[in-house]
């Protein structure tokens, strides 16, 4: 239950100048990096700080990144294997993730 409360309070920030999406978790930064080409975002890398791994933060980060992409009107290509795996778990991302 406590973990769900923590997850509800997390937000993704789009740092366009740094070509990444970030999420602050207990003072640590998790991120999804991308390259922008031909109007598409190529999601190249995801990282969760070592001490936060295995707790669901990576999935949360990627799904919230997908939500932000939807809000901003981007289509994306999942290059990172973890991002691909998260995208495949739910058909709702098929419209924006290749």
Q: Which SSEs are present, and which pair or pack?
A:
Blueprint: H1 2-8, E1 12-15, E2 20-25, E3 28-37, E4 40-47, H2 57-72, E5 75-78, H3 81-88
Parallel strand pairs: 4-5
Antiparallel strand pairs: 1-2, 2-3, 3-4
Pfam families: Acetyltransf_CG
InterPro entries: Acyl_CoA_acyltransferase, Gcn5-rel_NAT, GNAT_YJDJ
Protein name: N-acetyltransferase domain-containing protein
Oligomer: single chain
CA-atom Rg in angstroms: 13 Å
Principal-axis shape: globular
What is the ordering of alpha helices and beta strands?
A: HEEEEHEH
CATH topology: the name is: Aminopeptidase
Biggest beta sheet summary: 5 strands, mixed
Q: What percent of the residues sit in helical stretches (DSSP H or I)? A: 25-40%
Structural class estimated from helices and strands: alpha+beta
Distance between the termini: 33 Å
Which blocks of ≥5 consecutive residues have pLDDT under 50?
1-5
- Number of DSSP E strands: 5
Mean pLDDT: 90
According to CATH, the homologous superfamily is: Gcn5-related N-acetyltransferase (GNAT)
Keywords:
alpha+beta; five-stranded mixed β-sheet; 32% helix; 98 residues; Aminopeptidase; 33% strand; disordered N terminus
């Amino acid at each position: 239950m406590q973990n769900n409360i923590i997850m509800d309070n997390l937000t993704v920030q789009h740092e366009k100048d740094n070509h990444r999406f970030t999420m602050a978790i207990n003072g640590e930064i998790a991120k999804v990096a991308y390259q922008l080409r031909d109007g598409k975002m190529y999601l190249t890398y995801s990282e969760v700080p070592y001490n936060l791994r295995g707790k669901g933060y990576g999935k949360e980060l990627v799904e919230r990144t997908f939500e932000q992409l939807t809000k901003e009107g981007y289509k994306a290509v999942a290059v990172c294997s973890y991002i691909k795996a998260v995208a495949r778990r739910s058909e709702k991302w098929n419209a924006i993730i290749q």
